[in-house]
Specification:
Domain Peptidase S8/S53: 156-399
Keywords: Hydrolase, Protease, Serine protease
CATH topology of the largest domain: Rossmann fold
Helix content: 10-25%
Distance between the termini: 108 Å
Largest sheet: 7 strands, parallel
CATH architecture of the largest domain: 3-Layer(aba) Sandwich
Strand content: 25-35%
Strand order of the largest sheet: 7-8-6-10-11-12-13
Shape: elongated
Radius of gyration: 32 Å
Domain Fervidolysin-like N-terminal prodomain: 46-120
CATH class of the largest domain: Alpha Beta
Active site: 165, 198, 351
Number of helices: 12
Organism: Candidatus Contendobacter odensis Run_B_J11
Structural class: alpha+beta
CATH superfamily of the largest domain: Peptidase S8/S53 domain
Length: 605
Amino acid sequence: MMTATEFRSSLAVVSAASVDTRQTFRQLSLVSAVALALTAGGLASPAQAQTGGRWAEGRALVQFQAGLPQAEQDKILKAHGGKRLAKIQQVGVHIIEVPAKAEDAVVQALSHNPHVKFAEKDMLVEASLTPNDPNYSSAWHLPKIAAPTAWDTSSGSGVVVAILDTGVYAAHPEFSGRLVAGYNSADGTVNTADIYGHGTKVAGTAAAATNNGLGVAGVAGNALIMPVRVTNDSTTGSASFSSIASGLSWAADHGARVANISYDVTGSSSVASAAQYLRGKGGLTVVAAGNSSTNPGYADSPYIISVSATDSSDNKASWSNYGAYVDVAAPGVGIWTTTNGGGYGAVSGTSFSSPMTAGVVALMMAANPGLSPADVESALKSSADDLGTAGRDDVYGYGRVNAGRAVQAALTARSTDTQAPTVAMTAPVSSAKVKGLVAVGINASDNVGVERVELYVNGTKLASDSTAPFGFSWDTTQYAEGNVTLVAYAFDAAGNQGLSSAVSVTVDNVPDPVDATPPTVSISNPVNGAKVSGVNVTINVNASDNVAVTKTTCAVDGQVLSISSSASLKCSWNIKKVAAGAHSISATAEDAAGNKSSTAIQVTK
């Protein structure tokens, strides 16, 4: 262990900005169970995007609307040269193979399909009571967020904090007795050793032991640590959207109440779906805002707590990202924490602001285990120290976290949500005739949050959708012809239920009668056998059909002069340079069924 003098000397060197130069982990690797088809060939080579981002070449992520049959899913993928590789079952996200260099085109085309909820490239992102610990005096961030005040009430006992990162050094004395079973979502194994060193630093920031006479203190020193390794890349620590979404879903299924992701994933629909899944199980997802000193333009996610970074003077760290998606801020400059191999060191980056906030969330949950995720998030924001512009702003969000006030807010909060969600169907409309696959649009909202929406057809549940924006694909060919009633139910985490107005439609999958009758067509001017002269000859074509004429054509000597989509056509034939003699004027009419008829006359110049 370094001496106090060495410790302070090191701090002086790094506090200027040993920003994790690999940035807030903005790149990712591949998914686990997902690794089935992927481990054989290895991780696809990353490609450089026009925007500067990287993605797994030849791969994309897609989530279909709830209720869409698998056969129809395959048809949609096949039309764009795609095929499924794996599926993140908990959130219904498919990892698909697409033609190399066609990722953008395929994602764009799929995104416009009404039976696709979202499609995105599989982006790669790189790794963003006072205790008696010897280096606590250099841990400026802990008193800054009033952690000692919080520790008088809560130390995070019993709360499982999942660290989705490069792994965790399990033998570190700061984690002794508090590691729970983890997972490697990059290859589907249980190998969670830290292959890059970043994850151990993140874990220590959130939950290194306090008051144990050792090197540093984490925010939630008695919380349980769940290592979820999301990468097998020991060179860059990069990981994929799919690997992170898979790891987060696994953590949700295995007891995590808080998940920290020190990667820039706020813009991923797949990760947001997994975060919503964790929220539905009573957990919260905390994410680093990024270290590019830019506003990436992300929308605020209702399922993710994004954290920007501050320095010891409560100023924005020079490299911290900002924007409408930032929820809160936390210290991120010169943070002393645990390192791979059992040591200690100072680090900087939103990669460490994020787990600091995750630790505060763990303190709150331990103080009042009965609070819903929405209650905890609300208390976290309302208790933050407002910095910068009064109220919420894009730099600090709702403010820099204050652990002492947050724990007190959690203690006094009461979860009493009795308000039901509202839900309405936007498509199809009542009295509509429907056939084939029908996209059912849903608008659902709640004072806290909608957990899921269920669609019922004639009183029988068709499907459930747990990820916003809500919607369904309804295969009407599985229902008898005639009137059908659709109803949607929306549920929140408290069990409150909202009911939509019923929508009655008519299923009409009977094929239209085959139209075998061709149109009739005639040329009214000039007449057959006429002699033409002058410069221009006007040709009048008239057509009719038992249903409708969709196209009429006028031609002279086989050369088309004019085309119309109506039943009548008037065209002008310039005969000034036409050779003397006989010429053929023809007309053709076509209907929607493809039936055609033609007529022709002869004229002489």
